[in-house]
Amino acid sequence: MYLKNVKTFAIIIEKENWGMIMVTIKDIAKKLGISYTTVSRALNGKPGVSQETVEKVLKEARKMGYQPNAIARGLVKKYTNTIGLVIADITNPYYPSIARGVEDAARKIGYNVFLCNTNYNKENEQSYLKTLQEQRVDGIIINPAKDDSPNVYDLQTPMVLINSPSYGGNNSTIEVDNKRGGFLATEHLIKSGYKRIAFIGGDIASYSNGRRFEGYKEALKEYNYPVDESIIAYGSFKTKSGYAIIERLLKLENPPDAVFAGNDVIALGILHYAQDKGIKVPEDFGVVGFDNVGFSELPQIQLTTIDQPKYYIGKLAFEILMEEIRNKEERFVKKIVLEPELVIRKTTRGK
Amino acid sequence: MYLKNVKTFAIIIEKENWGMIMVTIKDIAKKLGISYTTVSRALNGKPGVSQETVEKVLKEARKMGYQPNAIARGLVKKYTNTIGLVIADITNPYYPSIARGVEDAARKIGYNVFLCNTNYNKENEQSYLKTLQEQRVDGIIINPAKDDSPNVYDLQTPMVLINSPSYGGNNSTIEVDNKRGGFLATEHLIKSGYKRIAFIGGDIASYSNGRRFEGYKEALKEYNYPVDESIIAYGSFKTKSGYAIIERLLKLENPPDAVFAGNDVIALGILHYAQDKGIKVPEDFGVVGFDNVGFSELPQIQLTTIDQPKYYIGKLAFEILMEEIRNKEERFVKKIVLEPELVIRKTTRGK
DNA sequence: ATGAAAGCGCTAACAT
DNA sequence: ATGTTAGCGCTTTCAT
C-alpha cells in the first residue's frame, strides 16, 4: 500500500535503535552526590543554591545531555505551555496567515501550538476539543467550523473565538467587521456602475458570511437597489462552488453583471467561469471577494477584495488568550471587532 | 498597542472565571466508595472489573464531567501520543498540503501534532527541536530549513526527514526524486523547442534544489545543450526573488528563452515579470516550476510544473514515523524516493 | 545552602 | 473482582 509511486524502498539498516535513556535530575544528583532538590533549584535558577553548586550542576547537566521533562513539570505546575489552534483547513490560504500569527506570538514566549484541522466538520471539532482538554492545553483559539447550532463552548479551558459570536460560554471573540466589509464591497460595485449585483456565499451556516450578506443588503438599500432573491445564493467555501453557482446565475433571463463573493476562494471560481466563457472582467462583469488571501494579489488575478488583517488577528487572538490564561479568576471578556479595508484591483472597473 | 485598527474594544464582563476544578479518578472513586485503581481499570476497559462496577463508574464519570489527564498518563506510560511537525513556513502553499497529510493520518490513530514554523531559520529549528524533546513528543517529522551544514539529527526521538538526506543520524527519509524531476522539466523545455534554458533556484543550500539542478544539467548534456553559468542563478524561495533574477537574466546580451524554476513560487515571480513586460508566454518564453502547488493549476496561471504527491508524502512520513516509534529497538532505516510527474500546462509550448 | 518528604494524576505490579 | 503500593520526573513546602 505504501508502494504506489514508490521508486526506492531500500537501504535498510538493521538494529539501529533509539536510545531512550533519558537522564533525569535524580541521575545528575546521584552523580554529584547531592539531593535532587538542589539540582532542581540550580537548573531553574531558584535562590538558595551556592554559585559553586549551580555551576557544577549546569555543567554536569550539559555533559549528561539532560533534557527537562515538560510532562512531569506540567503535572505539578498545572500548566503545559501549550495551546490548541482549531481551524477548518490549513489548505485554505486564509488560515495559514492566522496560524502564523498565532504561532509566532506563541513562540516568542515559549508556547507550543497544537494544530487542528476540523475540515469544516463539527464532529471533528468536538473530538479535537476533547483531546485538547485531555492534553491539558492552557488555552484554545478556535475558528468554529459552523455556526448553525449555537457554539456553546463552556470548557474548563480559556478560549478565544475567531470569526464567530460567542454563545453562552462568555468567551472573548475577535473578528473583522464583516457587515461593514460587505457594505464596502457592495458599495464599490455600485459606484463602479454595475447594475445587478449578485451575492454568492459559502456555507449558509457561517456567521461571518451572514454578516457580510447583511452588509450587502444594507448597501443595496442605501443606494436604492432592489434586493433580488434570484441572484442571492449559497454553496460552500470552495472554488468549485463559486464556479457552479455563477454558471447558474448567468443563465437567468435577467442575469447579474457583478457579484460580491463570500470569500476570495469563491471569487476565484467565479473568475474561472468568466474566463472560460470569455466574459470580460471588469468591463462587462465585476467581482469582489473577501479576505484578501495571498493569491488575490497575483498579477494574473488582481482580485478586488476586502482585506482583513489575518496575521494580526492570529497574533491578537493569542495575546488575548494569554491574558485570560494569566488572569483566570477575574477575567474580562472582550469582544473585538477589527476594521476591514477595501482593496481595489482589476476585477472591478474602479471609479 | 492592541488598539491599531481596533474598532470596538468593549463589552467587558467582570469576574467571569474559568472553573479549574478538574475532577480526577480519585474524586470519582471517593464518590463511589471504591478504590481509584478500580476506577482506572473501568475507565480503560481493562479486565478484572465487574460489569456492574464498570457501568457505575462510567456513569459517574460522565456525570462529574471527568476528563482524563493525558499529562499524568504520559508521565507513567512514557509516550504522549504527540508528534512534532517542523516545516519552514505554513504560508508557503507547499507545506499545508504536507501538513494535512500528516495531521489527517495522525488524527486517525489519536495522535496530536505540534506545528512548528522555522521560517527557514536554522536557529529556530534547533530551538523547536529542543522544545519538542522537552515535551517528550513520540516522534518528529521535519523538513529541514537548510542543508548547508550537515543536519545531524541524532536526537533521542524517532525522526523522519522530508526532502533532505540524512547525515549521521541514520534517520529514515522520504523525498521525491528531485533529480529526475529536474531532468523531466528541462527535457520538456528542450523538446518544446526552447533554445536557451536558464535555471533559477531558491536557496543554494537547499538539498532538493541542488538535486533539481543536477537533473537540469543532465538533461542539457543528454541533448547536447551547453551548460551556461551565466544563466544559472540562485536566490531564495520567494516570488520576489524569481522576479528579480529573471529581470537580470533577460537583460543579458544573450538572454534565455526559457527557465526551469526551483519551485512554483519562484516560477510565479518569473511569470509576473513576463506579464509586466508583455513577454509572450509560452510563445516566446517558456517556464516550468516544481511542486505543483495549488495556485499552479489556476486557470489564470496554468503553470507547467513537476508534481509531487505532497499530501501523500505527509501521510507516508507519519506512517513511517509510527513504525519507528513502535519498533524502537530493532528499527529499519528507510530511504524512500517517490516518482515526480511532469504536468504540462500553458506556460510551455507543449510538444 | 541543602535535604527530606509529599504530592501532581495516573498506571502497573503485587497482593488479597 | 477489588484494593494497596510504588513510582513516573518534577516542584514545593517544611525542616535543618
Automatic annotation (TrEMBL), chains A, B:
Query: What Pfam family is a match, any one?
Result: Peripla_BP_1
Gene Ontology molecular function, alphabetical: DNA-binding transcription factor activity; transcription cis-regulatory region binding
Species source reads Crassaminicella thermophila
Protein name from the UniProt record: LacI family transcriptional regulator
Signal peptide (from-to): none
Tell me where in this chain the HTH lacI-type domain is found: 23-77
Keyword terms, alphabetized: DNA-binding, Repressor, Transcription, Transcription regulation
